[in-house]
Amino acid sequence: MGGVIQAHTVEQVRAAEAELMARVPAGTLMQRAAYGLAYAVVDFLAGAYGRRVVLLVGSGDNGGDALYAGAVLARRGAYVEAWLLSDSAHKGGVAALRGAGGRVRRTEPTGRRAPTDGSTGSNPRFDVVVDGIVGIGGRPGLREEAAAALDRLAGVPLVAVDTPSGVDVDTGETPEPHAVADVTVTFGTHKVAHLVDPAAGAAGVVQLVDIGLDLPPADVEALQAEDVAALLPRPHPDAQKYTRGVVGVRAGSATYPGAGLLSVSGAACGLAGMVRYVGDQDVHDLVHEQHPEVVGAGRVQAWVVGSGSADGAEGTLREALADDVPLVVDADALAYVDLAHGRPVVLTPHAGELATMLGCERVEVEDRPLHHARTAAERYDAVVLLKGRRSLVAAPDGRVRVNRTGTPWLATAGAGDVLGGVIGALLAGGLTPYDAASAGAWLHGAAATLAAQDGPIVAGDVARALPAVAGTLHTSPPG
Ligand SMILES: NC(=O)C1=CN([C@@H]2O[C@H](COP(=O)(O)OP(=O)(O)OC[C@H]3O[C@@H](n4cnc5c(N)ncnc54)[C@H](OP(=O)(O)O)[C@@H]3O)[C@@H](O)[C@H]2O)[C@@H](O)CC1
Ligand SMILES: Nc1ncnc2c1ncn2[C@@H]1O[C@H](COP(=O)(O)OP(=O)(O)O)[C@@H](O)[C@H]1O
Ligand SMILES: [K+]
């Protein structure tokens, strides 16, 4: 597994690259990158001999990587054709490809016509496109010629060199047309665009090639299973239920009783010592039918507030704030988030809720999730978990964790209520808001994936799968 995945900025990568280049012979890094790329393409094609490869080559070193990798593939028996998108492609790379028997052509400068004869839109001629148009030196978007070449090759599987060309590498935004990859082979470290949507969705499967860069800690990262395992609270040998932490749920209402039940079911994942429910009597009865161990009002170490609270959201938030404990603020309670200012809080909006909080449109949040999650974390001085395909957990100091577990089946009503409950249990267990939100999102996504192995899921299935996921992380108590 290898521990937390870090995503560095272009500036950090450039600095590390300069430092390393000063110590190794010229061209070493590009050779390391090119070999890693070539072998990833061989893996992708399950071989090289007889495969037909087209390289899209821009003017920079990204194109150089593609050309040298093309030379490796050509030497292993692939038919390799490079389409140069500019007059100034990497000279050493062009020579290497030619020397290995590859073909090199300049695209029509208008971009209207690709340099092949007789190929049609579906391009049966090629097994893979290697996108070496631009990497970390690119501006977002594609020049007309590059876009036309990609159009021409639509339908052919695409392996991107370092990044899918055209995405904004440091923000994960995709304001302009861009390549969409099946696989992205990146070098030295992940970049933000590999983790953060919408760009991450265009990167496909990301493979990292180690080229020996020495990098500082990154602000953007993704926890792996072992990182989550290290964070999870474990009962001490002489634990009792109160020392493990009590999580209280103030959610659900006569209008939305299920939200209370689902929040409790997330909180009752077994990671806290006890769960309390405080709220509507009918919801309380419903909760009791399914979770007889849940008790009523009393002292807690964390509150979960707001899912399905409807008109009662403000009141329940005020009541929860009367206790000086960390809390999860979700759904209806997000409208009153200012009441919680200065307290240890995890806010759990989806894109629509975050848009309302920040006074913008939902689509703006979806287009720039990293920017908006960070803005909200700073504005509310709180940890903000922006829910979505790749949920983001932003801290007020600018750090962000990206959640990579989950399945599209998780887009199901009530899934967010379960998530709030899990995070509450972790807060009660003593995790910081940042750790509780990121570990909670990881467990929640992994539970959905586990539950979805048996078919489509509803929110309750996610809650029921949580203990099994925690079990896979070796959460047995010490001793
Ligand atoms: N860092 C490392 O450790 C290592 C890095 N390596 C590799 O180097 C890559 C970075 O190479 P790089 O710096 O030469 O920049 P790169 O991304 O090829 O393109 C920049 C050029 O493209 C152009 N251009 C810009 N925007 C554009 C657009 N939207 N659409 C079209 N064209 C556009 C612009 O040229 P212009 O035509 O404007 O003069 C600009 O000069 C990196 O991603 C990795 O693959 C590895 O080899 C080894 C280790
Ligand atoms: N396409 C997707 N892939 C993976 N997870 C998703 C996707 N869409 C939504 N989710 C997750 O599903 C949950 C939905 O929560 P939420 O939007 O609050 O729904 P609800 O209000 O119905 O509970 C969140 O944890 C979110 O991260
Ligand atoms: K690229």
Structure description:
Homotetramer. InterPro entries: CARKD, Nnr, Ribokinase-like, YjeF_N_dom, YjeF_N_dom_sf. This is Bifunctional NAD(P)H-hydrate repair enzyme. Residues 100-122 are annotated as: Disordered. Keywords: ATP-binding, Isomerase, Lyase, Metal-binding, Multifunctional enzyme, NAD, NADP, Nucleotide-binding, Potassium. The protein is α/β, with parallel strands linked by helices. The chain folds into 2 domains: 5-221, YjeF N-terminal domain (Rossmann fold, 3-Layer(aba) Sandwich); 225-472, Ribokinase (UDP-N-acetylmuramoyl-L-alanine:D-glutamate ligase, 3-Layer(aba) Sandwich). It has 18 helices and 18 strands. An 11-stranded mixed β-sheet has the order 8-1-10-18-17-16-15-14-13-11-12, sandwiched between helices. It has a 7-stranded parallel β-sheet with strand order 4-3-2-5-6-7-9, sandwiched between helices. The two termini are 25 Å apart. The structure holds ligand NPW, adenosine-5'-diphosphate and potassium ion (K). Potassium ion binds at residues 62, 131-135, 160-163, 165.
